[in-house]
Amino acid sequence: MSDTGRQSLTDKVGAAVKPDSEKSTTEHIGDKFKGKSDSAASSVQPESQKSYTQKAGDAFSSNSDQNEPSMTQKAKNALGLGED
Q1: Cα dihedral sign for 79, 9, 34, 29?
Q2: Read out DSSP for 12-53?
Q3: Model confidence over 9-65: pLDDT tens digits?
Q4: How far is 9 from 56, CA to CA, in rounded Å?
Q5: Which of 2, 1, 3 minimizes the C-alpha distance to 45?
């Protein structure tokens, strides 16, 4: 279960596992929108109020405001599945 206003860990993993080349334009736009809104909610929500799964999801996906790519993006790039 996700915290209010947050993307669930299952949704994050599902979006990360599917190769970008297999996603439709709508899926790409949806992923970007969900990622940005989840990142904003993550930044505003205090760590003390996050569930264990949201903390794990935040660590896995990284905050999009940071210049460092997330672990997910690094793995996709290493496998040749990322945009970079």
Answers
A1: positive
A2: HHHHHHS-GGG--HHHHHHHHHHHHHHHHHHHHS-GGGS-HH
A3: 788 888 888 888 898 999 989 888 887 888 787 788 888 888 888 887 777 666 544
A4: 8
A5: 3
- Per-residue model confidence (pLDDT) at position 1: 44
Domain residue spans of the chain: 9-78
Give one DSSP letter per residue of 42-73, joined into a string.
HHHS-GGGS-HHHHHHHHHH--TTSSSPPHHH
Structure tokens at 24: 């439709």
